[in-house]
Amino acid sequence: MTDTPAIPARPRPFRPATTEPALVKWSLIGLCLAVLTVLLFAPLYAVFDEALRRGWAFALASLSEPDAQSAIRLTLLVAAITVPLNAAFGIAAAWAITKFDWRGKAWVITFIDLPFSISPVVAGLLFILMFGANSALGMWLVANGLPVVFAVPGIVLATMFITFPFVARELIPVMLEQGRAEEEAALTLGASGWRTFLTVTLPNIRWALLYGVLLCNARAMGEFGAVAVVSGKIRGQTTTMPLMIEMFYNEYLSVAAFTMAGVLALLALVTLTLKSALEWRYADQLAATHRH
């Protein structure tokens, strides 16, 4: 009796895991575009349409008001102070967490994430309790001509508290993935600590640092809750652009409010454009960094 030859199984057609029917693909694309239209494109269009409803001349005239000029200057000043300080803190924190082993490191990472979980209004109240006129420290500062609450220093402190996790949280995963081998090799070859940082560490983290700085800058310019609590909303002195937008809108100065909102949106778009341009210009170097 001869053995019956086995019938080979019919091979199944190859289907990559990411291949989906055209209906599914275009449905997902349409859903994404619809969400972006409702949440992003339509509001942006409404802001600029309302700002220019009475023409360019009227919109520009509303920005020339002393209160508007003061709000723009204060917003840029706060961002110019906050972003470099938070960048320095983020680099130092990421370096300490990723390059050294020490007890309590997990707690430090938790505390860095704390501003993400605390309401900005609560953060503002914390600074009121610490530096307000009812506290001993606040009374001493006011008596010596160094007020913090209802002054520019309070706005800077509140903005720094809200934005300081952004740079550190971008740098820590990148520096953990890269490890310590390159820095240790540079130190073994005789490089100083600063030279090692500038020639080895900084080139490897520059893109993560850029992303963190851009996120920090965008949040610093747009922060409302904590700043509204500590600033006192003194016109011409402690009103940033978000606060001025609210004040204009509550006073039924809709063109001025939406024009100021348009300027704030343009600043965010400029930041995004700069980020995209740098990514396009240095795409090869960015890809090499990710491969590394």
Automatic annotation (TrEMBL):
The chain crosses the membrane at residues 26-48, 74-97, 117-141, 148-168, 208-231, 252-274. One of its GO terms (cellular component) is plasma membrane. Pfam families: BPD_transp_1 (PF00528). This is Sulfate ABC transporter permease subunit CysW. It is a multi-pass membrane protein. Keywords: Membrane, Sulfate transport, Transmembrane, Transmembrane helix, Transport. The keyword Membrane applies. The lineage of its organism: Bacteria, Pseudomonadati, Pseudomonadota, Alphaproteobacteria, Rhodobacterales. Part of the ABC transporter complex CysAWTP (TC 3.A.1.6.1) involved in sulfate/thiosulfate import. Probably responsible for the translocation of the substrate across the membrane. The complex is composed of two ATP-binding proteins (CysA), two transmembrane proteins (CysT and CysW) and a solute-binding protein (CysP). Residues 72-275 form the ABC transmembrane type-1 domain. It is found in: Cell membrane. It comes from Rhodobaculum claviforme. GO terms for molecular function: ABC-type sulfate transporter activity.
